[in-house]
Amino acid sequence: MKIDLEAVRRKRTNLNPQEIGEASQRWRRINPNPVFDPAEVTRLVKAGVKALTEMQLADGGWGWFHARGGHSYAHTTAVVVHGLQLALQNDVAIVPGVLEKGVQWLKRYQDQQVTRISNWAKKKKPAKRHAGNLDAFVFMVLCDADKVDGKMRDFLYRDRNQLAVYSKAMLGLSMHK
Q1: Which end of the chain is more exposed for a tag (fewer CB within 10 A), N or C?
Q2: Collapsed DSSP state (helix, strand, coil) of residue 35
Q3: CA–CA gap between residue 76 and residue 59 (Å, rounded)
């Protein structure tokens, strides 16, 4: 975001009453806030991206556990893919293929959800009645990857009154894009 972290650090106000007063009487912070140190932020970002890369499961998604036999979850995968998209937009290096595999996992998941919603009217299983909050989140992440599914868009718009406010906001951002 091109924010001068040092300028923010200088202007911040400490509202902790235990740390107000003479320096000799203040509590000393053992760990200063790393957000004001650009080198530390860069180190933390690189470590985080490396850890997420190592946690990707063989199917391309992410789950609660990254051990062999782990199970990918749509919400976890959408959170990670969204974070990696933001990292890439901010010139953070990503191992080639990691983001693409995550997007493909989400695309397969969304295709399954479109089939389930379509099956509801046919009384065919597996089925679900409405597009939901998770569908809006996955749709937004996939829109950010330029993977727009017209059927899911139409279901989400049709079912927008069933969505939470936050999900409506994600749908609105997706529609705007």
Answers
A1: N
A2: helix
A3: 14
**Strand locations in the chain (E):** none
What's the CA angle centered on 109, arms 105 and 111, to 5 degrees? 115
Q: Is the preceding omega at residue 126 within 30 degrees of 0, hence cis?
A: yes
Amino acid at 58: A
- Tokens at 131, concatenated: 């597009």
Measured between alpha carbons, how far is 167 from 156 in angstroms, rounded to an integer? Answer: 10
- pTM of the predicted model, to two decimals? 0.83
Backbone phi, psi, residue 176, to 5°: -65, -40
The string of pLDDT tens digits covering residues 72-92 is 999 999 999 999 999 999 999
User: Residue 102 corresponds to which tokens in the numbers above?
Assistant: 């995550």
**Residues 117/130, Cβ–Cβ less than 8 Å:** yes
